[in-house]
Design a protein that fits this description.
This protein has 173 residues and is of the alpha+beta class. The chain is built from four helices and six strands; from the N terminus they run αββββαββαα. It has a six-stranded antiparallel sheet.
Amino acid sequence: MDASANHARDLAELGFLEHSLKEAGLPCRLIEPTEGVPIPALLAATDAGDDGRERYLTFTFVPLADEDIGDIRLLQLYTVVSPSVPAVHRAELAELLTAVNSRIPLGHFSLNEAGELYFRYVWAVSAKHRLPDPETLHVADLFLMTLGMFGPKVSDVADGRIGAAGALADLDA
């Protein structure tokens, strides 16, 4: 399947997901591919984080060549936890992320090259069928629940409000 056919299929799938999320009460918006963002995306507005920042959950399909993995597609769930982690807090954050990522049921927290802290999960789904309706919402719920359980402490360390040892002690309590 060529790139435009893949984009059309992804856009249709994300449109079905948009409908399900809206029915579940989550405001969202489907974004068509552009030059700047060459793949379709679905943005869902979640509750603001503990820091008061607006938070968006982004759904995208990871682009794959059909010959790579023809039977599956990869649906990525992604959200920014902190847009910019100061360099002075990154060592403490790395220590915490190693411990936290080993405890969470799905996904992982990480820091990209620009210093943006994010939470991400990539789910392998069938390429032969539509996204499974209730299961996709359950996965999104689990993603958001995991983010809610660990995100505040990860964010606190990223912003320097607490050290890794203190955050781990709080999580163990």
